[in-house]
Amino acid sequence: MEFIRRPKGDEGCVLCGYVGAAPSRDSGVLAQRDGVYVVLNKYPYTQAHLMVVPQPHVADPDELDGEAYDTLWRLVRDARACLVRATGCQGMNVGMNLGSAAGAGIAEHLHVHLVPRWVGDNNFMPVIGNVRIMHEYLEATWDHLAPHFTALTGGA
Q1: What is the pTM of this model?
Q2: Residue 156, in any domain of the structure
């Protein structure tokens, strides 16, 4: 409801808004490294749904220079490992939606989704009620995940 009720306007890129934010419960940032950061998805598909976002405001991975591209994918790899340890998930969706036709909600700034999955994690609510159920608030998710991500900030 916070998203729906907020005033709409030209706020700029929401993903660029995380640039320079220190890892904290308030920012939702879990880690940052050399112009790439890991942040909780504010509108998650499942509990602990994260995004890994490069600082450059680009829509396509081909627009990243080699160093930024490598840093992005190294942090995706490391964040995935942290997420598995933190959640005990049985699987994970890792991917990008490039362009609005591919389902990108924020098509102008590329980002990689990490979505932990468990056998049987789908339920009837999305099908019958067009509703998703989250098992905990984002702040509680951040509190649980943060200790697993502290080592990622800064190091390669």
Answers
A1: 0.82
A2: no
